[in-house]
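Inputs:
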Amino acid sequence: MQTLTPILSTITAAFLASLVEVVEAFTIVLAVGVTRSWRPALTGAALALAVLAALVLAFGPLLALVPITTLQFAVGVLLILFGMRWLRKAILRSVGVIALHDEEAAFAKETAELHRQAGDRRADYLAGLASFKAVLLEGVEVVFIVIAVGAAHGQTLYASMGALAAFVLVMLVGLAVHRPLARVPENALKFVVGLMLTSFGIFWTGEGIGADWPGADLALLAIFAIVALASFAMVRWLRGTYPQAAGGLAR
Amino acid sequence: MNVIRLIAMEFFGMFVDDGNLALLALVLVAAVTAWVKLLALPPLLGGALLLVGCLAILLLSVRRAARTNRR
């Protein structure tokens, strides 16, 4: 159980976080493919993946040079910042303070932009650029997530497997339905991912300063439970104290 | 060059959304680390402080956002 806990939590965190990012990138690539043509859509996406691969190859080996406690501390701090940002947004979306992310709306916006550019003689280039940017920017987050949740415990392979599974799943479903994956409960996913990344961050930063957590890796589950309970309590409290257009956790 | 700038901006944006939240989180980590390393606070207590501190900072941040939104 003590060995399985970090492996399962690493795969789950990488899978869920990557799922959200891949869905968002897929929406834009699909919009480009359907509205303009698949050539710029796939060329842009492939170029972005090549840039991401180059980044991983360039910076990945440097991580092996960093002492493990320093790496845990640095990655832990970054995960606290990254995870709490996701968690904050997910909480605020749950109580209706900020709008839920809507894949149909993102698709419609991108499609409208591409239609506006249709008369431009650089239309193919602009369409390819949109696809490139979407995959690159969402991909940067996926690369960080894989490195962050994997590197501190030497589980980059498991984290990569989680991300790859998310990529394959989105591609398979996306190719089957051929439309934006608007039914993916993005905010609920982001809520869970925010909880997981924040918990990882606190756990590793703690290890980085020398904390010997009781129960070793099982402490991660306890931290997750505490962060989750506190976050749900915040949602409840905010709904009661600042009643706005309550959105709900379902989406 | 634009690609590098784009990636750098995206990378920065990944960690900083609400500037106060990011700043307070960094101050918390720095304070706890200094307390553990320089003033011999037991590291486990430092870890517990991190947990409580992060939740307090999150609460402050979402409360401020909800208040601002109501006005």
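Helices of chain A lie at 4-35, 38-63, 68-94, 103-116, 123-151, 156-177, 186-208, 219-241. Flag for discussion at group meeting.
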